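Handout, tutorial session.
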Amino acid sequence: MKSKVNVINFPDRIKQRRDEKAKIYSSIRDEIESVLNKYSRYYNDEWAVVLAAGRYSSMKLQQIEGTDSSIDFFKKCIETQENKNLNL
């Protein structure tokens, strides 16, 4: 039986790409939330900003992913918020 001393471990490119995408998606999410918060403060109307952002996101997501996936996404967002409120 040969020794495994000469084994070369290649980098996991799939995991690296997945991690890079996760970082980019988190960055985009955080930046968009920051912009929306600024609009809410500037116009002093959080309700209008929330409705505009929700309308845009729900309509675009439905076009990209379809109705069922979009509804599932929004349900998960709501569940996350509900769980966050429970842990306060």
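The second record follows below. Compare its token runs with those of the first.
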Amino acid sequence: MTDQSASPLHYLQIGEAAERAKLTQRTLRYYEEKGLLSPPSRMDGGFRLYSDEDMERVERIRELKDLLGFSLAEIKEMLDSEDVRLQLRAEWRSDADTSEKAVKIRKARDITAQQLALIDQKMAKMATMRETLSDRLEKYEAWLLKWSPDGLVAEPASSGASSQS
């Protein structure tokens, strides 16, 4: 069913790749459509084949989405920046003159600064949300101290105890 010359053992068909990544096949196709994943290699029959590098990229997409809450547009921006950085690294020549090296280093620095700014924006939004929730919690704790019969905050919020608003 699979052509062994076109499909070394480290390649996965889309179903296997989706299962390993804990995603749907449709999601992998969507990531490809949106430019988050390069079009994978294909077997003679047109079946998609995902390499170890493809799977690492899928994991990076999940990390940016799940851990940092990035949108697909932000993920694309981060991945495109990483691709440029990797291209600069591949083009690096130790025998190049210092001005050529400086140009590449500046570009890599600027790309990294853009990625860091994107993460900082997310962290600032999360810090603001955390502060809002923390203030709200303090307010509820103060109300419980004020309005509870014994002046104690004894019951946890998840206890299901009813209160009057």
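Points raised in discussion: Confidence is low (pLDDT under 50) at residues 1-8, 159-165.
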